[in-house]
Amino acid sequence: MKNSILVIIFVAGLIVLNPGVEVWAQETHVGRLSHLEGKVFFQSGRSLEWVEGYVNSPVQEGDRIWMDVAARGELDLVNSVLVRMNSDTKLDVVRMGASGTIVKVWIGSIFVRITDDGNRENPKFVETPDGQVEFLSKGLFRIEATQENSTLIRAYEGVLETKSSTSSATLRKGELVQINQNGQLTSVTPIPQTDKDDFTIYNASRDERLVEPESNKHVHSSVTVGVYDLDYYGIWVHDPLYGYCWQPRSHAGWAPYRFGRWVWIRPWGWTWISYDPWGWAPYHYGYWYYSSQYGWMWKPDRYYGPHWVVWTAHTSSVGWVPMHPKDAAHVHWSANGHHWQADVSDPVNATLNPEIGASTFITREDFQQGKLIKSNEEIVKVEKSEISKWQPEPAQDIKPVRQAISKLPSGKVRDAEKTSPDRRLVPGQERRKVPTQRRDVQKQRPQSERPPQRTTSEKAETKKDETKKDTDQKKSDKEPDKDPEKKPEVKK
C-alpha cells in the first residue's frame, strides 16, 4: 500500500519566531471533492454549521457530506478510493488513513471505485444503518441505503463481503444482494441487464478518465489524491535543474494560486481552493517556478500543506506569491521531523522575472469572505515599491468572516431530515447492532444535532400553508360528509 503521508499542519495560532515561523507536523491524510454537478454541503468535525463545498475542497476524517437535490459529486480519498455520490445522499467520512478507509452512508446511493488492491492492513469499508461492506479487491461497486430500511449492494467488478446483524455473504462480479428490514440477507442473484439509471451514466463518465497515469512515475508514492488529473490537463517535462516537472495547459494571464478562493478550514487555517479542475496536488504538494522555455512548472514534493505561498498585506489588500523550489532551502526540518522553520522574506518568484506577474492581490474584504476569483479583472494591482515585506502567514488582524457563499441545503433535502443523523430511524427506535468493532458514527456527533434552520422565506411559505389548512378545516367542520360510512382521505 502507499506509504503514509507526513503532512504539515498550519494551525490558527502560529508561533511567530524571528525570523521565521514554526508549525507542527503530524501524520494525517486528506482527500478532496474531485468533481461536482450541483451543490454539496459539509459539516466538519463537531461543527453544526453546514458550509457549501466546491471542487478541490479538502475532505478529512469526521466530515459529513450532504448532496443537494439533483446534484452529483465525487470524492477522491486516500488509499485509492473514489466515492461517487448521487442526488440527496448523505454520508460521513469516518476513517481515512494508514489504518484504512471507512465511509458511512446514512441515506442515498454511491458508487465506489477501488483503483488499487492494496493490502489487508488498509481495509476499505462502507457502512450503512443495515450492515457493513468490505471491499476485498479493486473493482466497481454500488451501495444504496433506501428509505425502506434496506440496503442494496451490487458488485460490477471485483469482490466484496457484506455483513448484517444476522448473516454475511460474498459478492463477485455481476452479483447483487439486499439487506432487508429485519437484517436478513436475500439470496445472491445476478445484476439485471436493465439495472441502469442516470447515476450509472454519471459513474461511467467519471471512469473514462481512469487510465494508468504517467504521473505515478513522477510524484511520491504517498501522493495518491488528484494524480489522475495531471495527465489529463498537462504534460511532464524533464528539467536539468529539478528533474521531471509538470506543465499545465494554461492561458495568457494565468499564474499559480491566481484563480480560486481562500477559505478558513480547521485545523490548517487559510486553505487554497483552486478554480482549476486539476488544482489539488500542484497546490498542496510542492513548489512552482517559471521557465523561459515552458512557462509555469510545478515541482512535486511529498508534504501536504493547505498552500505553499508567502504573504504580504496592505491597508486595503492581501497578496501572496507561490513558493519557488529555491525557497524550500529556507524550510528547515527538525532532526525528528516533527516541525519546521521557514524564513522566506525574499521569495524568488516575487523578485525573479517580475514581468511574469507571479504575485496576486485582492481586497481584504474579498479575501476574508472567500470570494471566488475567476479573472484578472478581479485582482488588485500593487506596485513592487508598495510591498513592505513578505511573511509566512497573513497579518494577524486578517480574520475570516462568515462566508457570504455559505448556504443551506435546498428545501427537499431539509424537509426530509430528522433530528437523528439517520433519516430512516424513527425517534426512540433502537438501531440494530452490526457485529463490528469499527467506530460508531453516532457517538461522534452531539445528541443535540439539528438540521439547518429554514430561511425567512421558507418560514413565511410554511405559515401561509398552515393558514390555508386552518381555513380548509373550518369549511370541513361546517360541511360534514354526507356519507357517514365513508372514511376521510389521508394526505400523504
TrEMBL record:
<dbReference type="Pfam" id="PF20245">
    <property type="entry name" value="DUF6600"/>
</dbReference>
<protein>
    <submittedName>
        <fullName>DUF6600 domain-containing protein</fullName>
    </submittedName>
</protein>
<dbReference type="InterPro" id="IPR046535">
    <property type="entry name" value="DUF6600"/>
</dbReference>
<feature type="region of interest" description="Disordered">
    <location>
        <begin position="385"/>
        <end position="492"/>
    </location>
</feature>
<feature type="compositionally biased region" description="Basic and acidic residues">
    <location>
        <begin position="412"/>
        <end position="492"/>
    </location>
</feature>
